[in-house]
Amino acid sequence: MKKNQLVLLMVMVALTAAAITYAVHSLFIRIEVQKIPTDALFSYDYGVGFNLNKDRLHFGRMPIGGSGTRYITLENTENFRIEIRISSEGEIREFFIAEPNPVVLEPGEIANVNLTVNAPSSASPGNYTGNVLIDVRRKLL
Questions:
Q1: Under 8 Å between Cβ of 64 and 120
Q2: I need a surface site. Which of 15, 56, 92, 132 has the fewest CB within 10 A?
Q3: Measured between alpha carbons, how far is 79 from 31 in angstroms, rounded to an integer?
């Protein structure tokens, strides 16, 4: 009888753990992911470079040891709470920071997020490319 009770207890623990894992992962439902091409030119030249084309998110030319910041405005046009997570991929990933991140927005709420690329003194000159990923999720609780 004790062996049967132990097996039943183990099954109950496993089911409870599975239910908790499912509940935690279900708190967010992915709505969309936007991929924005981006680039930055690291240079020993201390001149400033601007690229205002709208084909991608350009950070322009920046001196090695410097940084460039752009900001984006996020608005929740849904009728429910959302969470937005911003990340990056590609060569630019190790130099990219988004603050604040993640951002939780109530319906109709607006927030600004700073997107920064740092060109550390250890970086080699060159054009660094990648994508900024904007992951929008419905927050259930």
A1: yes
A2: 15
A3: 13
